[in-house]
Amino acid sequence: MINSVKHKAKLIKLTSLFIFGMSALFVHAQETIIDVSPDEVIVATSTAYPIDFGDDGSIEFVFRVQEMSGDTLLGGQPSTYDGASSIVECLNGQPVGETANGVFTLSNFSGGGTVSSSSEFGTDESYPLGINLLIDAGIGIFPYVYGSFLGMNNQFLGVRFTSGTDTHYGWIELSVSSGADTITVHSYGYDETPGQMIDVGGIGAVSGFENDEFRIWSQSESLNISVTEKSLGKDFKVISLSGNVVYSGKIQELNTQIDTFHVPQGVYHVLIDSATSSVYRKVYNH
User: Fold this and answer.
1) 161, β-bridge pairs
2) Which end of the chain is less packed: N or C, by CB atoms within 10 Å?
3) What distances in angstroms separate CA 57 from CA 77, 125, 170, 214, one per listed residue?
């Protein structure tokens, strides 16, 4: 059984203008992030994995893996092929991509991108995340590989979907094996405010529960953690996508600022843990 942990996060975008001192403008939105825990792993023999963003019974996307084999022609030469394809089916939503030479290709985000009304969205019923085939033409075996997510880990697919008459923007974090025979869904999220643009992966968001016990966000060359008094003494870790702990410590103050000048740019996991509760959050070090 999939244990989906759903929490609210306040997305705070900071536009700052410093003129002879200081001023700051905060724009608030409401973001929902679902951490698929444990990660959902899809192969050809497993059940396809659906995503219902609003948990309202309307499935927007389905992920599945298909084994592929058969006969074809390669340059007029009878040939056979064998391999796999990782596919996203679009039922009530559309993925972000771009059109080049008349062909629409899915876009993947490694972090820092946004999804909004200005993005280009595909309208087909399904798209390949990755295809990996071996074609035997009788005179040799040739590989055929395709897809912007093929062999990529922890990439983000930008999406939009409609709930009633409202359009929402969101993202799905996934990995696709180099053989296109495995899809792993890690998390997904969307902005509850209709028409509101969103940073993929929840990047730039301030994380918290209803009591605002925890707030985590990144700024240029720093990571910030704000807590209430009852959270003092909790352990925290900053973890890279490869699983390396780049920083760890104990929260000793209500507001903790970590210097990330020497930490490479990219997406990191922040884990605050204790015997009674834990918080898991993604931030982008920029």
Assistant:
1) 93, 168
2) N
3) 48, 19, 17, 31
How far is the CA of 284 from the CAs of 24, 47, 73, 205, 218, in angstroms?
Answer: 21, 33, 46, 9, 7
Give ∠ CA 240-183-190 in degrees, rounded to 5: 65
Nearest to 106 by CA among 55, 174, 168: 174
Same domain for 46 and 118, yes or no, is yes
Report the predicted TM-score, pTM, of the whole model to 2 decimal places. 0.66
Residue 202, helix vs strand vs coil: helix
The answer for residues whose C-beta is within 8 angstroms of residue 111's C-beta and 6 or more apart is: 156, 200, 201, 203, 266, 267, 284
Residue 111 CA neighbour count, 13 Å, CB half: 19
How do residues 177-216 score in pLDDT, each as one tens digit? 999 999 999 888 898 889 999 888 765 443 333 335 667 7
Q: What order of strands is seen across the sheet that includes strand 245-250?
A: 245-250, 235-240, 266-273, 278-285
Q: Which residue has the tokens 């296109």?
A: 180
Which residue carries 């702990």 as its tokens? 245
Confirm whether 20 is domain-assigned: no
Taking only the tens place, the pLDDT of each residue in 234-266 is: 888 888 877 788 889 898 998 888 888 788 877
